[in-house]
Fold this protein.
Amino acid sequence: MDHPSVICPGDHAVWRADKMGKTTLFQSSRLLVGLNAFEPGQFHALHVHAGMDKLYQVIEGEGLLVLEGREVPMKAGELAVAPDGVPHGIRNASDHRLLVLAILAPAP
Amino acid sequence: MDHPSVICPGDHAVWRADKMGKTTLFQSSRLLVGLNAFEPGQFHALHVHAGMDKLYQVIEGEGLLVLEGREVPMKAGELAVAPDGVPHGIRNASDHRLLVLAILAPAP
């Protein structure tokens, strides 16, 4: 996609029956702007990025931000930052689709 | 603010009568997550970041993405990326408040 252009993230979501769907909206060496699409029950397991900060934003639905030893509810419009070295994941424990913007700096 | 924590961006907006209000939600060397709050008529003039990519997302209201020679409407939920070296700005030409998430990688 050419930039700058105005993007409605929901138009670019990829939904998969077998696992979380991923889309890249923008990527450079500095920044990755992606979408993670979770059908009910799907998840992205606890993981860590070395040397990268990650920003999540819920675009549609509601999910659980998975941290070490706890899960924190997030709903559409809310953000969370997992700084370098902080384990994090996402789980869709709801009955509806969950779409999350996932931003990494720098890009992996 | 400690991270990871769930953030509702609208709770952190700073609105100013004289010019665009700015808030920082997260900052590291890699990533700046900020809010730009525009009362009707307020703007952030065309500017360039050297060596940084910028992502805008409209959180509330509608605005104009200012580019060289044109202005592109953006409404709540929409994104735009201004890659390194691409001049960009924002203008609130509406009668309502405009709140924009502004993400820079790396941080200035």
